[in-house]
Amino acid sequence: MFPATITVALITGFQVSTTIFASGLATLCFILITGRKIPLYYGSSFAYLTAIASMCAAKGYVMTDGILPEIAIREAQFGIIMSGFVSIAAGLIVRFAGSKAVERLLPASITGSVAMIIGLTLAGNALGDAIPKIGEGATSHTADQTWWIAVALVTLISTVLYSRYLKGLLGQLPLLLGALTGCLFAGILYFAADVNLFRQVPEAALASSVWKLGDGSIFALPAFTLPKFSIEALVAIMPIAIATIPESTAHIYQLDIYVNDVAKKKGKEKFNISSLLHKNLIGDGICDMISGVIGGPAGTNYGENISTMAITRVFSVPVLAAAAVIAMVVSCFTPLIKVIYGIPLSVIGGLEIYLFGAIAAQGIAIMIDKKVDMFDTKNIAVIASVMVIGIGGQYAFGGNIPVFGINVPCIAGAAIFGILLNLLLSIGKKKKAEDEPTEVVSEEAAE
User: pLDDT, tens digit, for every residue of 415-437?
Assistant: First the structure.
């Protein structure tokens, strides 16, 4: 989970050390909130990337040396904290009305299409990092640009091959191994072709630390910041939690299957983890708030976490708590943070092509898994509207659609419109079903 967590920080411009620390702290809190009964790790979510970018575009915030201005991070924190209320509300609905109520409000036709546009609207960012513009730093020379693209391709292809062919525990590390392969190739170029694609460590990465041991070259606490009210952040980021709810729900059911399989083989009683879905969603929301309060990005429980536990057959809450503590300690280790910031942008670009495409593909998988009827006029209308508003808003207006004098982030606007349209087209559907006569089938006919 480590490469995915730090990649979110590198792409969004959040502090890497704060992001790692927040994932550990939120995981410890999640374990306590859920009564130490759900073995899940909280990590940074890719679903919020476009929302944060849209907010920054609306406010004119620009990253400097890979880090957002502190004011931008603080305003994004406010949106992240508010997004936690969406997950908490979903958990309360599940607790008192059952999981079907959430599915009716957020059917797969909406959550799947929102996941698709999250990935597709980021396609430009991925190629922008993988293929540099002429005249930017080392890319002013054609040879350097060629090597930049080569490093991105090596990273992309190796990540795909690792994902496809590696099995077992190594099969859960394609991002890490792909990044290492890309960095290794960039290192060879540095010594063999005198091409330096590695980045300089931004001064703000250490200067913003709240406390340093000595000069901070070995140990420094992360840069903690407090949230700042922003209506743009609220509108852009809060609705994105809609996309993480089905992901979090699927994870809890998947975990339930794995844990019960191990329990059965050990002769233990069945663990009914799926009955804790409401606690899982509430825990997710509170952890978003915890991460947002100290300056970390929004997150979710990780599928990589579940797959790793399934392979090792270790579903231990204390082990996850130990991992969380290790993450918090590691976040203060300055040399590691410097190495992370030094990763070539071309390597990040290669990873992004795979990651963002996978997010879009996951949206398709959600609709296939839920058997969404693609011939149903309501589903077609909802999916079509969400897709066009989301993708069209990104490429026609740069991520913020001007509506009635208000700049509405395309992902949030698409999600909200999809929900309202689905509710509108669902009016009378239940009543019609109840009014239809029930066909009586005799026992002989049934047989």
Answer: 889 999 999 998 876 654 444 44
